[in-house]
Amino acid sequence: MRFGHFKSSIGSVSQKVLTAQLRAMEADGLVHREVYAEVPPRVEYSLTETGLSLSPVIEAMSDWGQSYQEKHVALFEEA
Q1: Would you give per-residue pLDDT tens digits along the chain (79 residues)?
Q2: How far apart (Å, rounded) are the C-alpha atoms in residues 48 and 52?
Q3: For residue 47, which of 21, 24, 51, 78 is within the disulfide window of CB 3.0 to 4.6 Å?
């Protein structure tokens, strides 16, 4: 995935913050950064095996967050 796609998918994140997070994830072995010798330069990111292994954890956290939010919205609407 290209940097610009990340930025547009996430929304309101600065280039500085996104760059720092991608570099940290690369240093932690979660993403692979591929630089292509083109003009203009092209950089693509992909998940490593370690990054892919986190998918079930992230999906479970997302499911929990959605369930939590739905319960609290329902409670708020009842009040």
Answers
A1: 898 888 888 888 898 999 999 999 999 999 999 999 999 889 999 999 999 999 999 999 999 999 988 888 777 776 5
A2: 6
A3: 51
